[in-house]
Amino acid sequence: MNIPSLELPLSSFAALETPERSVTPKAHYSPPWANTSIIGIAGSSGSGKTSLSLAIIKELSLPWVVILSMDSFYKPLTSEQSAAAFRNEYDFDAPEAIDFDTLVERLRDIKTGKKAEIPIYSFEKHARLDKTNTIYSPHVVVLEGIFALHDERVLDMLDLKIFTEADGDLCLSRRLLRDVRERGRDIEGCIKQWFSFVKPNFHKYVEPQRNVADIIVPRGIENKVAISMVSDRIHKTLDHKSKMHQIELRRLGQVAEDAPLSDHVAVLQHTNQLRGINTILMDPTLPREDFIFYFDRLAVMLVEQAFSAGLCYKQHTVNTPVPGCTYDGLELDGEVSAVVVLRGGSCLETGLKRVIPDCRIGRLLIQTNFRTGEPELHYTKLAEDVSKHKRVLLMDPQMSSGGAALMAVRVLLDHGVEEHRIIFVTYLAGKQGLNRLMSVFPEIKVVVCRIVGDMESRWVEQRYLGC
Amino acid sequence: MPEGRPSPLIRAPSQQLGPDYRPTEEKPTATVSTAPKINNLHILNQTPQLIALLTMIRDINTGRADFIFHSNRISRLLVEEALNHLPVLPHTVNTPVAGRTYAGVKFEGKICGVSIMRAGEAMEQALRECCRSVRIGKILIQRDEETSKPRLFYDKLPEDIKDRWVLLLDPMLATGGSALMAVDVLRSKGVPEDHILFLNLIASPEGVQNFADKFPKVRVVTAFVDEGLNDKNYIVPGLGDFGDRFFTL
Question: AAA+ ATPase domain: which residues (chain A) (predicted)?
Answer without folding.
Answer: 35-299
